[in-house]
Amino acid sequence: MELAAFAPRAEDEHPIRIALRSAIVDAANNAPRSLQTALGPSEYGDPCARRLAYKIMEAPKVNTDSDPWASILGTAGHAWLADALTADNQRTGETRWLIEQRLQIRDGLTGSCDAYYVPRRAVVDHKIVGPAKLREYRASGPPDQYRKQVHLYGYGYTRLGLPVAEVALAFYPRAGQLSGLHLWSEPYDEEIALAAINRVDTIITVAYQLQVDDHPAHYTAIPRTPSRTCLYCPWMRPGPDTGVTCPGDTTLPAAPPAAG
């Protein structure tokens, strides 16, 4: 994308636009999900061990200006889908869906799973994504992070005593029509969930052994996995890898300035 696309526009300084954006960003930054400090199921499969270590040790954030709009749309979409599945239960007179079930996956790890489809004993997680990602997931399957997340939900349901035979990811187009809905699924595998848990436990052990809370430079000993998501990492700052912050993927251009 050309830098000219990020050039200031006259409308950027309109008082109403400034007020709207300020209210939206403030609400997003103070939403319960944004204020969460413990790792959630969606983060257990993050490929970057360094990022997980920063989060686990509550390292100070330095990259906090990312645009929240995509996550806002995702949150709103999840709420609408929950209402739709609740209405489906009421309309059919059957409990076909368990919705937003709170799961205790392990000590210190809880999460709300979007849905459990009773007829197939299937865990379902909603993802609302852009056109490029939708094409990628349709062609190549979901990222490992999403796959681990939905198996962790499956593990949480088994701890509740419910049978889990299948896990599924429903990808909804953020732009387009419902006909673009892509459903990926596979049999539930407890070993995938346990491997994700064991990996996080190993990162916790290493972080404490390195005493990174007292010696932030020691974070450099924890492997990092640069990718396009580095631009949205709260601990990414271009420059030398000092451990206090991470340079992220050095092959990517700098992020454009936030508008407004």
UniProtKB/TrEMBL annotation:
It comes from the Bacteria. This is PD-(D/E)XK endonuclease-like domain-containing protein. It comes from Pseudonocardia asaccharolytica DSM 44247 = NBRC 16224.
